[in-house]
């Protein structure tokens, strides 16, 4: 995992419309990266809906929120639509960002050879520096949403 204060690992991932989104192009605004293991699972729905419901607070803090999952853009689009998500969901189907952030969850859900993202949240400041990192030990664990907002507010 990258160190707090270091440059956040850059990536280019497709959104649900298969349009490329590059982290370094978001410089000038704070960014919250919410990696989640799998669309259409209970804890992931709860987490992403919590971010959806608090998006106005992040907008007031000049922060963009991105959900990131290894599922295909098509699955992520259906997941976003079903849950009324109001921020982009990016597809890390090649697991490049998952590897860059050191959050590989190998053999996810007992499926040998299947790597998902560990549930994790990173906050990147306007200069592209990593300022907050939280990685779950257990995929059923949710982040402390107040801690995430406090990290953004401190920027």
From TrEMBL:
Where does the record place the Thioredoxin domain?
Answer: 2-155
Give the source lineage, highest ranks first: Bacteria, Pseudomonadati, Myxococcota, Polyangia, Nannocystales
Q: Using the UniProt record, name the top-level EC class of this enzyme in a single word.
A: oxidoreductase
Give the active-site positions.
44 (cysteine sulfenic acid (-soh) intermediate)
EC id: 1.11.1.15
Protein name stated in the entry: Putative peroxiredoxin
- Report the GO molecular function annotations: peroxidase activity
Entries under PANTHER family matching the protein: THIOL PEROXIDASE
Give the matching SUPFAM superfamilies: Thioredoxin-like (SSF52833)
Its keywords, alphabetically, are: Oxidoreductase, Peroxidase, Redox-active center
Alphabetized InterPro entries for the sequence: AhpC/TSA, Peroxiredoxin_AhpC-typ, Thioredoxin-like_sf, Thioredoxin_domain, Tpx_Peroxidase_subfamily
Tell me which domain of life the UniProt entry assigns to the organism this sequence originates from: Bacteria
């Amino acid at each position: 995992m990258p160190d707090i204060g270091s440059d956040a690992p850059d990536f280019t991932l497709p959104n649900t419309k298969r349009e490329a989104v590059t982290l370094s192009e978001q410089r000038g605004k704070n960014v919250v990266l919410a990696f989640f293991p799998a669309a259409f699972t209970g804890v992931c729905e709860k987490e992403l809906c919590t971010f959806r419901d608090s998006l106005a607070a992040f907008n007031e803090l000049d922060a963009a929120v991105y959900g990131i999952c290894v599922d295909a853009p098509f699955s992520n689009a259906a997941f976003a639509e079903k849950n009324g998500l109001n921020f982009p969901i990016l597809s890390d189907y090649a697991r490049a960002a998952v590897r860059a952030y050191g959050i590989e969850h190998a053999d996810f859900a007992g499926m040998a050879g299947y790597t998902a993202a560990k549930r994790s949240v990173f906050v990147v400041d306007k200069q592209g520096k990593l300022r907050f990192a939280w990685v779950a030990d257990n995929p059923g664990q949710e982040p402390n949403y107040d801690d995430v907002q406090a990290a953004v507010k401190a920027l």
